[in-house]
Amino acid sequence: MKSYAGFGKRLLARFLDVTIFSILIGGLFYVFTGDYSIAWNKGLIWDLFYTLYLIVIPVLWAGYIMGKRICDIKLKRTDGGNVKLSNTFLRELVGFHLIGIVTLGTSLVVSIFMVILREDRRAIHDMIGGTYVSEN
């Protein structure tokens, strides 16, 4: 039987992930530039690295990223298997970022309600990527 992660755990995992990743990337910016400030062009670089992280690491780490590992939840394919690069690419780049930009963030609000109200707790990006977030 599948155990779906709820909105609270998913939100906490994303918050932890962004916080930890920001500290790491901020440290790298400091090492290379001598400044902690992130200008808009460096913000684009941060977003690129973070998106690549969200696409690659779950494939290498069996569905986990740092925040999900801390919250004991993981990304899985709808058939229960480990995610593949195609799943994470569709989920993050297409389902989350591109659709989020095209809809001016409306898809994010809809996704929040989907995770709260749907029995399978899947958001728009989960459906596009053929994934769900499992609670261990």
TrEMBL record:
Residue ranges crossing the lipid bilayer per the database entry:
12-32, 44-67, 94-117
Q: Which domain of life is it from?
A: Bacteria
> Which InterPro entries does the entry link to?
Pra-immunoreactive, RDD
Which one Pfam family would you cite for this protein? RDD
Localized where? Cell membrane
Where is each RDD domain found?
Answer: 4-130
Reply yes or no: does the keyword Transmembrane apply.
yes
Q: Tell me the membrane topology, using the record's own terms.
A: Multi-pass membrane protein
Record keywords, A-Z: Cell membrane, Membrane, Transmembrane, Transmembrane helix
Keyword rRNA-binding attributed: no
Q: Mind telling me what this protein is named?
A: RDD family membrane protein YckC
**Protein's organism:** Virgibacillus litoralis
